[in-house]
Amino acid sequence: MKFGKEFVSQMVPEWQEAYLDYKSLKALLKDLLRFLQTRTPTAMASTPNGSVLNRRASLYRAFSGLTCRHRDSPRAKEDEEILVTEDGEDGRYQTFVTVSDEERGYEVKFFNELDHEFNKVVGFYKKKVKEVVEEADELSRQMDALIALRLKVDNPMVDFGDGPQSAVHPINGRSAGGQHMDVIEEVEMMEDEDRGDNEPKTRTQKANGGIEGFKPPQLEILEHVKINVAPETPVSTLKGIILNSENQELSFSKKELRKAEEQMKQAFNEFYQKLRLLKSYCFLNQLAFSKIMKKHDKITSRNASKVHLNMLETSYLGTCDDVSYSSTFCLLSIQGIYIYELHLKLCIVNHLFLPSQVSRLIERVEATFIKHFANGNHRKGMKTLRPTARREKHRSTFVLGLFSGCSIALVVAIIVLIHARGLLESEGRSLYMENIFPLYSLFGFIVLHMVIFSANIYYWRRYRVNYSFIFGFKKGTELGYRQSFLMSSGLAVLALAGVLSNLDMEMDPSTQSFRALTELVPLGLVIVLVGIMLCPFNIVYRSSRFFLIQAVVHCVCAPLYKVTLPDFFLADQLTSQVQAFRSLEFYVCYYGWGDFKKRSHNCLDSHVYKTFYFIVAIIPYWIRSLQCLRRLVEEKDGMQGLNGLKYFSTIVAVAMRTSFDMKKGMKWKILAMTSSIVATVVSTYWDIVIDWGLLRRNSENRWLRDKLLIPNKSVYFVAMVLNVLLRLAWMQSVLGFREAPFIHRTALVAIVACLEIIRRGIWNFFRLENEHLNNVGKYRAFKSVPLPFNYYHDEGKSI
What we know:
It is globular, with a radius of gyration of 34 Å. The strands form 3 sheets. The chain has a 3-stranded antiparallel sheet with strand order 6-5-7, with helices on one face. Strands 1-2 form a two-stranded antiparallel sheet. The protein is built from 30 helices and 7 strands. The longest helix is centred in the first third of the chain and has 54 residues, at 101-154. It is mostly helical.
């Protein structure tokens, strides 16, 4: 793989605009090369880079001896033609080059762009280093409070304040009162790395292994600390509403300690990932800068890279804020193409650069995390900090192909069986479509949604949408499109096998006695599906299943949980699965109160069923409305209030259409059509303008947005048109298209539900694309983790 493609693939997606624009610099060098080729077309014709010309000219150059040191070197003169200066006020670098008038336009343009890109990289790196240093200071303060809290919780009688030392004094790891000091080793936050070599030690080891003169953090820290209890559960939310305060006093309970430790663990993990990516950002830009300078030297036969690499070494990007690295080997690895390819991984893994400020922070975070959150287990701590990415396995691909082939074969077998028996013209057609078809259509809705989501994941990866960060998946546990398609194809095989067994048993007279068993197949599939979802064992992607279950619980308990993107994204998916919820309701009625052995039920005549027929269709939209209300209260964002009104209009439209579907009449038809038109217009506008960020009249891309991930702009216009057309699928229920000649009413309802699922799949891609571009615009590559403690003065003001 060429360096340009490798450079792009290694970028942090949200920081892509802050990297060196290697592509544009390379394009400028190509323009310079074409200009040089036009100046000497005959000589350049033999090779695109003019290397043959240089070799031929050197053959006829006069021999100047082996030791003519007194003569001026041509290379020295060339070096004098290029000068790089640094502005003392803002630290910006500027290149001055002395070239012929013909070359000036190309060379000056290249170096101006190079200076602009380099200054951009240095400025961004300075800003991020400053941020991580400030964050490191805050984490140190939080860690002091956590250690003090550990001491207080594990040993309630311990007191290391300025008062009398009669309470507890550590002697050989035990308190005076006989309590064991298990946390003494954990209290060692500051190691020798935080002290100079000449500073006195804070503790000395006794000959018998005890600790003498040890000074743990003062417990008086806890007098200036409050616990940050974010409302993350229904109970804590209600408690926060009643008490009208999120910052509660410390109660020194073990539950409180566990909560604080979990929050600090997440904060350290996120901080460590930020440091790693910042170090990678610095290293990749150094390599890109050196590579582009080498290409320049190769085209112009200059030695400009020497001056610019010296600038790189002395700049903030090279010195890393007061710590310079040895240029002996690293400049060799930067300047040489082949050396770079051989030693790229070695430079990263073996730390060939002397430790920078970021590198020192990485080492400190590792040591702190291993000691205080992994009980000194290095392997366990590093496994948490550096989780391994999910590896593609050949057996997964094989099983995926097997299930896909079986699904196709089963579909063909069902079609042949229906045609052979003539089920479309049989007397039991209506009975089957009204009783069995709704049972199996549930699996069709789920499979279709999963297949489209697999396609979403594929295109998100293709266009570098950081969906794992946006959803908040734990690194290394996110599903790829293959895994998602594997689960959907597996479920499709089970459902299609159930349909085929149902038809086959009815055809064979010898299996008529198994009719009751045949009718229970759909219920058995539902039980299997629920069992797999709730299975506690580490099989079938347990982390992803539990992540989904957690999001479902948050949706059901809305607005008592804090709303995150996975929660409202899942709720939006549920709004497109209204017919699936109604199928579940039909399961309860059919197997609970109907006679499934005779394929008969009275569900449509039951007032309870009709009531829940309304409720299950409204529940997903009601959940989204409550989530918008929660965000309106917390974020004070008026757009969330408008979004809630949009979902409320959809609730009214669904209720009116359902009423017309059951009661008929011109009155209900007018109400259903009016409310549906209003909801469709509002929802369509919100989808395209707010969620997708399109229809910007003054944008760089007319009627789209300034930044697009898909090069073909027509895709966006097609998506907008499809969104409008697919949203009009409700018209079939209002305009009287109840049953086509060859399509039963239930089949038509299922087709309309599938169209809504397809529309939601299209919405998913552009919704996350817009979210990703918003993160890119704000350079937001990490999620904010709430810290457990809040410092404050005695006067009550926060520090």
